[in-house]
Each structure stands twice: as structure tokens, then as C-alpha cells.
Design goal:
Layout (H helix, E strand, L loop, with lengths): L2 H8 L1 H10 L16 E7 L2 E8 L2 H9 L9 H11 L12 H4 L5 H13 L2 E6 L3 H15 L10
Antiparallel strand pairs: 1-2, 1-3
Helix pairs in contact: 4-6
């Protein structure tokens, strides 16, 4: 294995441990001194559901949690609504598109419920400013915790 890549990998475990050791918070109670860039984790009790990465944690969490967020920013809630409704197949045409789904009589309300659910989930986060470590840490956390709503599928 390339030595530089090995160094990146070796740096992941301490960040992972810091993330899971963090006392969870809620979106409505985010601390003022939180990091700007890093990894965030959504959980319900002991069940870890979704991990993401961003260069603006507070703003990204708001995108996931605000009732007014669209399918562009509330992507985790969108996944939850897909799961709830069984409308899981992605399409790249107008019929069945993400924009159309949010107006669907079953999907639209499910998306609203999912955003409320996400806003009430436990949140953890850890700072990671290096973009390569940030990407690797997101994958590492998703694999280590078995988060069911991360698939890393290309679209």
C-alpha cells in the first residue's frame, strides 16, 4: 500500500472514536463552538442511520432539518421518505423525478414527516478539515457503523 495513503487511513480511527464518544445533541440545540468542516452523524438512540461530510456543518445540518428544505438539501429525509413509501427507484425523466415526487399525494407528506424526524434525531460531529481525510472518514464511519442510508452509489 502506498505510504501516504496508509497515513490517511491511520488517521481515521482517532476521529472515528471522537465522533462516537461525543454526547449527542439535537439540531435545535447545536453548540455555538462547533467545527465548521467535518463529518456529521444522525442517529436514533443506539441506531446510527446516516453519515455525511461537509465544509459547513451548521449550514448542512440546517439543510437536512428545516421544514422548508427541498429535495436538493434534505437528501437524508428524501431517502427516508423513499423508504417509507416504497418509491425507491430513481428516474432521470420528469415522470417520477425528485421534483415530481415531492408533489405526489403519498410522497410529499412522507417527505415532510421525514424532515421532522431528522430534525429530532441525535447528532454528532467531528472536525476534519483535510478534504481527503474527510472523504475517507465518511466512508469509514458508514462502514464501521453500518449506516443503512449511505450507499455511495453513483448517479
Amino acid at each position: 500500500m502506498h505510504s501516504e495513503f496508509r497515513q490517511f487511513l491511520d488517521s481515521l480511527e482517532p476521529k472515528f472514536q471522537a465522533l462516537v464518544a461525543m454526547t449527542p445533541t439535537k439540531f435545535a440545540a447545536l453548540p455555538t463552538g462547533m467545527p465548521e468542516r467535518g463529518i456529521y452523524l444522525f442517529s436514533e438512540g443506539p441506531t446510527h442511520l446516516y453519515v455525511g461530510r461537509t465544509n459547513r456543518i451548521r449550514k448542512r445540518l440546517a439543510g437536512h432539518c428545516r421544514p422548508s428544505s427541498t429535495h436538493f438539501s434534505a437528501t437524508f429525509a428524501f431517502r427516508l421518505a423513499r423508504h417509507e413509501t416504497g418509491m425507491v427507484k430513481a428516474t432521470y425523466t420528469q415522470a417520477g423525478s425528485r421534483a415530481e415526487l415531492v408533489t405526489h399525494p403519498a410522497f410529499g407528506p412522507a417527505f415532510g414527516r421525514a424532515k421532522a424526524r431528522v430534525a429530532n434525531m441525535d447528532l454528532r460531529f467531528v472536525e476534519e478539515t483535510d478534504p481527503v481525510r474527510q472523504a475517507l472518514l465518511e466512508i469509514y464511519v458508514a462502514i464501521a457503523l453500518g449506516t443503512p442510508h449511505n450507499d455511495f452509489e453513483n448517479h
